């Protein structure tokens, strides 16, 4: 069982490692400050890991308003009001009045229209109780029962036990939306959406293919609305699935290698374009760098640098294409823009030719490479594009910690964007024993002057693990 949740990193980190022992509990894993719960880890029989479900938990309602009243369910109702006083330096106390409706807090847009926003996770939650019971579970039945009261934030919980069983539960409460709901502004004069009862049938246990994983993808394929997941690129998900599907011989080292994998599958879709379009001779240096490349976004690769600039160029061109020819502000995802370019027989009426579109992408790429890395860009490495800094939780610039040479991008298992694995955990489950290996992006201490403030960071950067 492996877990590596991706978050915005700070020092000290969101998680820290803990071993909790009491008369009723013996658990080990990762928790967050102030919460006496293991969120990812194991007891003596069961292991579990988490990743965010990315469900849509916000509804926005347009209101019909007159004076201090809003129209709802056939009648005019006064806004609820709550006053706050905020001390503002140089101005004294400033009073703020927050209005709310049955649909949530009220705000207005530039045009003066009134809206209310409902965030379901603001409702009363039983998640702490549920996670406490989760730590005491000893089999799949008790695991599912513990999560039956879990509501927010929605998480996909992966399960395994010492009896060789595996499962996943997609736990959380969904708003009771209509079938085929697609989002958008709702009518605030009509009855409020209520929350569905928890549905622990959103689970899988001992599947025929002998593996399970979650990378935030939609938990089940049906008409139930979880969120706009169809807008996402799924290269990372498909990479995980292909590795698991094509290998039946896993051990600790191979799982660790998979957590560090940096192959971007989107390259192989882009590579098809090179055989479909005329390749202008002035961009031959770009083609040379991509010839026979394996899509591996390692830090020392020039090909990886070139391809990341191509992805950037495609994003620029897709935004222009969406605004000019589709007449929308939202650009298509990288996946669907690539799909459009790969279908030579189909063209948006009255739009730019696909050959021109392809050439514009190459022209953008050539310009960015020369502007950012100079005429000698063919000797530059992807590391120049992937270095980043982890801020101290105070966000004072003097306390940033630089991290170099990671590689990877948003499509790779070892993701490198604004989000990175807060920790990596591997649990080896055998009959009557569970062995653990982990590393965190930082250290166990929150004190800036402690030797343990960031003592695990270099091991994390190198992809190494501690025995736990």
The proportion of residues in beta strands is 15-25%
Please tally the β strands and state the result. Answer: 24
The major sheet is characterized as: 7 strands, antiparallel
Distance linking N and C termini = 14 Å
Question: Which range best describes the helical content: under 10%, 10-25%, 25-40%, 40-55%, 55-70% or over 70%?
Answer: 10-25%
Question: What is the mean pLDDT?
Answer: 92
Tally of helical segments:
11
- Indicate the overall shape: globular
**Which strand order spans the largest sheet, edge to edge or round the barrel?**
3-4-5-6-15-16-18
Which residues sit in consecutive blocks of at least 5 with pLDDT less than 50?
Answer: none
The rounded Rg comes to 25 Å
Helix/strand-derived category reads alpha+beta
Topology readout:
Blueprint: E1 2-3, E2 6-7, E3 16-21, E4 26-31, E5 40-42, E6 46-52, E7 58-62, E8 65-66, E9 69-72, E10 75-78, E11 80-88, E12 92-101, E13 104-108, E14 114-119, H1 127-135, H2 140-146, E15 155-161, E16 166-171, E17 186-187, E18 203-205, H3 235-245, H4 252-259, H5 266-271, H6 284-290, H7 302-326, H8 334-342, H9 354-373, H10 383-386, E19 388-390, E20 401-403, E21 420-421, E22 423-430, E23 433-440, H11 457-462, E24 466-467
Parallel strand pairs: 7-17
Antiparallel strand pairs: 1-22, 2-21, 3-4, 4-5, 5-6, 6-15, 7-14, 8-9, 9-10, 11-12, 12-13, 13-14, 15-16, 16-18, 19-20, 22-23, 23-24
Helix pairs in contact: 7-9
